[in-house]
Amino acid sequence: MAKKINSYDDLMNYFKEKEPLIRNRIDLTDKNQKRQILVCGGTGCHASESKLLVENLIKLIKDKGLSDKVSASQTGCFGFCEKGPIVKVFPDDVFYIEVKPTDADEIINRHIIENKVIERLLYEEPSIKKKVETQQEMSFYKKQERIALRNCGIIDPETIDEYIANKGYQALGKALTAMDQDGVITLLIESGLRGRGGGGFPTGVKWSLAKKNNVPEKFIICNADEGDPGAFMDRSIMEGDPNAVLEAMAIGGYAIGASKGYIYIRAEYPLAIERLQIAINQSREMGFLGKNILGTGFDFDVELKYGAGAFVCGEETALIHSIEGMRGEPTTKPPFPANSGLWEKPTIVNNVETYANIPPIILNGAQWYNSKGDVKSKGTKVFALAGQINNVGLVEVPMGTTLREIIYEIGGGIRDGLEFKSVQTGGPSGGCITKEHLDTPITYENLISIGSMMGSGGMIVMSEKDCMVNIAKFYLEFTVDESCGKCTPCRVGNKRLLEILTKITNGNGTMEDLAELKELSEVIKDTSLCGLGQTAPNPVLSTLQYFWDEYVAHVVDKKCPAGVCQKLVKYEINAKCIGCTACARVCPVECITGSVKQPHVIQQDKCIKCGACYTKCKFNAIDKN
Amino acid sequence: MEKFNPEPKIKTLPDELYKKLDSYIDDLSVDRKDPRKKGNLIQVLHKAQGIFGYLPEEVQVHIANRLFLHHSEVSGVISFYNYFTTTPKGKYCVSVCMGTACYVKGAEKILNEFEKMLNIKAGEVTEDLKFSIDALRCVGACGLAPVVLINDKVYGRVKLQDVKKIVEEYLVATESEKKE
Question: Which CATH number does the domain housing residue B152 bear?
């Protein structure tokens, strides 16, 4: 049975007792301490058998009688998902990449027993073309500053003691014992923290609206319905530091006067659900959730609610209806949830990352946070880098960092030496940003001014091999699929947009279609009920604006410059053909003719453009135009 | 107990599964007069789909009666959310992630390859109920794009030529089950 913490003093004593647990992960100067091996336990690394790796390490340590010299445990996401699974050895500060379960032997025998660094598991820093041992030497980490992700890669997310050892629940203690409700809200307003879910509404202001309502029952909701495809920062926070979310929700509960919180989480995130549930159970046992928290008389509890695969439920009114057990359809605002939300009670809905920022703000003060970032966008932001980029992963940078820094310095540039074409931010609600805007400092306002938006922080990088018309079509397919159908502009309008885009990618588009795309997009934006519909045409509008030539190529020349749109591709056999007949045999419609050892020919009128011959040919004898 | 909806004429699913679901609903101790009783619905549907594998009409009516709701309300919620299905899934459910990160790395081709190999379309199930295919929204493992899930097992950085291997792996598994 875990110890029950009954007061703030109790907490501070417990902190002093547990602090050594993680001391050598933060203070790396004393190299004589017991070693600790931390293995990434995020979804990405889990899929690469990192769990088995931890089990192997633990077993080896036990078998070899090394338990007093070294321990092994899992931790949250290090962010460098590209090279996962990641292993870090403390206090040596050695960072290993792409570690397999079978590497456990070598880590124990060579690193721990023989004190030798394992060269082959080190990362080669491209800028100096040398293997490096520490995170600090890697350009992926140089520009990063971790606030929301502060515990990811440091603590074991399934052990509340390690959270407490890194000052966990002290912010809640401070708020409950040394601050009044308005004090917490004022501090948040002064810190400049804005919602990290997309809109960027000042968090403190939102809380003050809910606090003003003088009713006995209010609710705190955590929006963990991370539906943007390509975004995984919220998932990583919940998997790596679930207690931070609970602590911040309790602080919110205190500030606005709520005693019940809900985390609305996607059912597609089983690991995050498991870790949150463990954290809820542990913090209930220790008394950070429940009745009379820290002996202050404040009651607060948190319950998980599962989403069921509806993107629109990321919209706060839809989310609230889903918790009520209804279809997740949005309603018009006002009334805002802060006045009338869950079961018509004042309700605060904040995103996971927003919550993760709150405990350090309470502990370190508004000034500390306010001094980071840009003029109107304070603090840091977590981005999920994905797509055609060398270093796929999770990065946290101060607001105001430029896209170029993120893509080229942190992200290591474009994969396979290809040319950068565009970066898509804000998911299906955002837009595509081009080369000319790479030096824009990232803030809420700047992204909107260049036709995109912050969104939740997904960044999909695209190269010359991606067709922008096709990408716009991809996002439209998504929104058409996810439109709840309540309002006509979104339900019907987006469907028409998709039809036009399909027509264009099939090679049947006209210039009038392009004009119509633009006009219809504007109408949908102006007349849709909720955020989903109002932003759904953004991918179309931004690609129309920045990649007009590409649309024209599809419409006028009937060509897809990137060679993606299948119906517009033309396969032709060139002079390199040696007549091996491989292509003719693989062709499903038998449209390739020619005799053995003679150049073959593709009959264009019969070709279905499946590309089978192109993949099969070993002699580069088929051109794709 | 007064029934909200007429009992379905035929109940074909095993009794012990219903008992499992009932014991979960019992623990919720739903009060029919509680205006917030519907708040339990989605959790119960998740549980039921976990038990039965899908949510056919007989299960819907059963849940509606236990939660004092109308069948239409339950059915309306099920049809709204992608996660819930009213048709059975295959023993091995192939889910191809179609999130943006996977899409730009060729997930669509991978999906087509699975469809070709198993001779069914996304959203369908093979006649012997062994395999079904789904196009999934982002699973958040973008570092491993393109990603395919077979039930809960994750396959990362899947290449076109891997598809055959993956399918064969499970075909072998189903064959050896037959022998047992």
Answer: 3.40.30.10
The mean pLDDT value of chain A amounts to: 93
Rounded to the nearest 10 degrees, what angle do helices B57-66 and B15-28 cross at? 30
CA proximity to A55, closest of A72, A75, A38: A72
Q: Which among A435, A449, A466, A491 has a CA at the least distance from the CA of A561?
A: A466
Task: Give me A435's structure tokens.
Answer: 């080369």
DSSP class of residue A84 equals P
Which structural domain, as residue segments, surrounds residue B133? 92-179
> Percent of chain A at pLDDT above 70?
100
pLDDT confidence of residue A443: 94
pLDDT, tens only, A219-277:
999 999 988 888 889 999 999 999 999 999 999 999 999 999 999 999 888 899 999 99
> Would you tell me which CATH number, out of the four given (3.30.300.30, 1.20.1340.10, 3.30.70.20, 2.30.130.30), belongs to the domain A570-624?
3.30.70.20
At residue A252, what are phi and psi to the nearest 5 degrees?
A: -60, -40
Neighbours of A415 (CB within 10 A): 18
Q: Which long-range contacts (CB under 8 A, 24 or more apart) does B43-47 make?
A: B43/A305, B43/A306, B45/A308, B45/B74, B45/B77, B45/B78, B45/B84, B46/A267, B46/A306, B46/A308, B46/B83, B47/B21
Mean pLDDT of A198-204: 90
Give the A:B interface size as CB pairs under 8 Å.
Answer: 133
**Cis, bond preceding A335 (omega within 30 deg of 0):** yes
Q: Where are the domains of chain A?
A: 34-142, 160-370, 380-463, 468-555, 570-624
Q: CB contact, 8 Å: A360 with chain B? A: no
Contacts of A507 (CB under 8 A, 6+ apart): A554, A558, A565, A567, A568
Least confident of A482-491, A532-541, A596-605: A596-605
State both tokens at A591: 């449209």
ipTM for the complex shown: 0.89
Pick the CATH number of A160-370 from 3.40.50.2300, 3.40.50.11540, 3.30.1330.10, 3.40.190.290: 3.40.50.11540
Using the beta-carbon criterion (under 8 Å), do B140 and A82 form an inter-chain contact? Answer: no
To the nearest whole Å, the CA of A19 is away from the closest chain B CA by 32
- B57: in domain: yes
Distance from CA of A384 to the nearest CA of B (A): 9
Domain boundary among B33, B49, B80: B80
User: Which residues of chain B make contact with A323, given a CB cutoff of 8 A?
Assistant: 39
Distance CA A106, CA A119 (A): 11
- The tokens for A452 are 């995109």
Residue with tokens 């321990």: A71
Closest chain B C-alpha to A119 CA, distance in angstroms: 24
List the single best residue of B42, B67, B108 to mutate versus A (max A Cβ within 10 A).
B42
Interchain pair B142, A268: CB under 8 A: no
The CATH architecture annotation of domain A34-142 reads: 3-Layer(aba) Sandwich (3.40)
Cross-chain Cβ contact A229/B99 below 8 Å: yes
| Average pLDDT of the residues of chain B | 89
Among the partner residues B77, B145, B154, nearest to A327 by beta-carbon distance: B77
Q: What is the pLDDT of residues A117-165, one digit of tens each?
A: 999 999 999 989 999 999 999 999 999 999 999 999 999 999 999 999 9
Residue with structure tokens 């190269």?
A463
- The answer to whether the CB atoms of B100 and A474 lie below 8 A apart is yes
